[in-house]
Amino acid sequence: MLIRGVGVRNNNLAVDLDKTKGFDNVCLTFAAYISDRFENKCAYNHYKKLKSTFKNNVLSDCVVNAQNAQQVEDIWNDGKIAALFSVENAKVIGNDLSILDELKRDNVLFITLTHNADNLLASGVGGSEGDLTQFGKSAIVKMNELGILPDLSHLNERGFYSVAEISE
């Protein structure tokens, strides 16, 4: 939406609100996609733009941000659409775990650890055959503490099993 400059009501992307009209209950995930090409502060600044787009161009009187399953049900009971916010590519945190605290305050529910390439946390499915890094293991522990789910799509197989061992 940000890149193409389109709104959530009606667009030529995979999902818009008009396309959901035939469904009784709708819960959409809006991912702040951080490209592997972004480095350090650029990844974080791009995230901030995407968060702003979600807040200002998606959320409305009929699309409400949900933070848990009960809120999704409450939103549905009010006849509205539930919206979840996530981050695709934990590269956004750089080497600073405290950014996870900010993401939690922004209502990020889950974070894809990599996109396809390797980053400071882990090896992506299109990267090396490496594992979670020490920093990545610390990030998983902190995400668990904050209640942010680690999304394992795009992670390589070795990293997948390491997260399964560490994550609660």
Provide key terms for this protein.
168 residues, alpha/beta, 5 strands, globular
Please characterize this protein's 3D structure.
The protein has 168 residues and is of the alpha/beta class. 35% of the residues lie in helices and 15% in strands. It contains 5 helices and 5 strands. It has helices spanning 40-58, 69-77, 99-105, 134-146, 157-166; strands spanning 27-33, 63-65, 81-88, 108-112, 149-151. Strands 1, 2, 3, 4 and 5 form a 5-stranded parallel β-sheet that branches. Helix 4 links the parallel strand 4 and strand 5.
What's a quick, concise take on this entry?
The protein is built from five helices and five strands; from the N terminus they run βαβαβαβαβα. Helices cover 35% and strands 15% of the residues. Strands 1, 2, 3, 4 and 5 form a five-stranded parallel beta sheet that branches.
Q: Structural class, judged by helices and strands? A: alpha/beta
Quaternary structure type: single chain
Unreliably modeled segments:
none
Strands, count: 5
Radius of gyration from CA coordinates: 16 Å
| Helix percentage range | 25-40%
Overall shape: it is globular
Helix and strand pattern: EHEHEHEHEH
Query: How many helices?
Result: 5
Query: Could you tell me how far the N terminus lies from the C terminus, measured between alpha carbons in angstroms?
Result: 33 Å
Biggest sheet character: 5 strands, parallel
Percentage of β-strand residues? 15-25%
Average per-residue pLDDT, rounded, comes to: 93
